[in-house]
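User: For my dataset I need records formatted as: sequence, then C-alpha cells, nothing else. Please produce one.
Assistant:
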Amino acid sequence: MKFGAVEPKQAVGATSVHTIRSGGLVLKKGTLIGPVEAASLEAAGIKDVVVARLEPGDVTEDVAAAEIADAVAGDGAHVDRAFTGRANLFSQTAGVLVVDKDAIDRLNRIDEAITFATLPAYKPVVAGEMIAVDSGLGYLVIDSRNSGKRYDLVVAAMLLIGLIGLALDIGFRRLEKIRSVRWGFRS
C-alpha cells in the first residue's frame, strides 16, 4: 500500500485516509477520490490530501476489518457490515459472553493498527447487544480498563456518558412541557 500526502489532482483513484472539512466541503475518510472530489478539494483551497493507494495483493481496510471480525466471531455472534475500517459484533441471542482473552491479546499484538476489544468475559448479554467494539465511548471504557488499567479514563468516560444522559433527560423534560409535543395516554 502506498500512503502519503499528494495534491488533489494526483489523488484521483486513491482513497482518503482522513475526513476533510473545509467550508462547505466534507470528504469522509474512506472516500474513493474521483475527478469531482479532486476538483472540490482544489476549489476549497486544499493543497494536500493524505491518501492510500492499494497495490496488488492489498485489501481495503473494510475487507480487512470484516475478515478479522468473521474470524473471531463465534457461535451466536453477528458481524455488522464493516465501514471505515471497523466491524462491530453483536450478540444474536441472550446468554453469557465467552471470550478468549489471550487470543484477543495476541490479535492486538499483531500490529498497532489492529485494535479489538470485547465486553468482559462471562458477562450476561441480551440479543442485539454490541459485544465487540473498536470506537466510541463504550470502546474507550473497555480499552482503558484492558490496556494498563487506566481507571482515570474509565471514570471520565462514565462521567461523560452520565452527562449525556442527564442532558437528554433535561431536554425531554422541557419538551414534555410543550403542550403540542406531549405524549402519553389521553382520556
